[in-house]
Design brief:
- This protein is about 40% helix and about 15% strand.
- It is an alpha/beta fold.
- An eight-stranded mixed sheet has the order 2-1-3-4-5-6-7-8.
- Helix 5 (about 120-130) runs parallel beside helix 6.
- The longest helix has 14 residues, at about 95-105.
- The chain is globular and about 45 Å long.
- InterPro entries: GP_PDE_dom (IPR030395), PLC-like_Pdiesterase_TIM-brl (IPR017946).
Amino acid sequence: MGVEPENTLRSFVHAEQAGMDAVELDLHLSKDGALAVMHDAAVDRTTDGRGLIAEKTLSELRELDAGRGERVPVFEEVLDAIRSPVQAEIKDVAAARALAEVMLRRDLAGRVEVSSFHDAAVAEIAQLVPGVRTVLIASRWEGDVVDRAKAAGAATLALNIRRLTLEVVEQAHAEGLKVIGWVVNTQDQLRLVRALGLDGATTDYPEIRRAGRFTA
């Protein structure tokens, strides 16, 4: 989203062409059950429309401009537009069930990693899709975040880089969990990723990876 309209096919293609290991996207259910790719529950911030995704049909969402003439994509379109692995963030349990249906139909457990802030959604997708890799996301957390991830069946924790400590990273690694830091948009943050020994990082600027090889 740092260089292209957020959560659009244009942005995902850019990320893939920039050599990123995976593309992260966000999923909400439309009024008629489509897996719309958008971060917010409402369309106001990232399109020229107003209102909640849950109160709009896919046809209504298609009429919106998501930036530079891009349309709001659905999950299946992203899968067809790029070849990269995908990390799909689900916003609620209902979206988890819809995502599970697509993953099972298209045999996506090896390509799509599923993440969520909601423990119940992580646990739900893990139960519905055998072998799926799951990620528990947290911005603010208590001392039980590693236990929460294990209880939900997550293999990875995605944590706010601004609050992440070495103690949490070491605790997670000791329990066999990977740790990803987000959002890493500066060279200082990239240095911190390496200093903490993280397993990955999420960025809004794909080119930071190339630059970071020489300056981080």
